[in-house]
Design brief:
This is DUF2905 domain-containing protein. The protein is α+β, with helices and mostly antiparallel strands. It has one domain. 61% of the residues lie in helices and 19% in strands. It is built from three helices and two strands. A two-stranded antiparallel ribbon has the order 1-2. The protein is globular and about 45 Å long. It starts with a helix and ends with a helix.
Length: 64
């Protein structure tokens, strides 16, 4: 269980780092992507974008 939490945390950190590039192509602004300010910092939780990208990766994996 600890490994899954670590994987999810790392995925959210990667999405947060790539959020500027993802917004240019329209990802990161889907319904279900949360943006909020906490402690003077802006946080992004791209839950819907992560689900969409994992679905696309799964579809590509099935056809390859």
């Amino acid at each position: 269980m600890l490994r899954w939490l670590l994987v999810i945390l790392l995925a959210l950190i990667v999405f947060n780092g790539l959020s500027h590039w993802l917004r240019k192509i329209g990802l990161g602004r889907l319904p279900g992507d949360f943006h909020f300010k906490l402690g003077g910092r802006e946080w992004h939780l791209p839950i819907a974008t992560a689900v969409l990208l994992s679905f696309i990766a799964m579809a590509i994996g099935k056809f390859v």
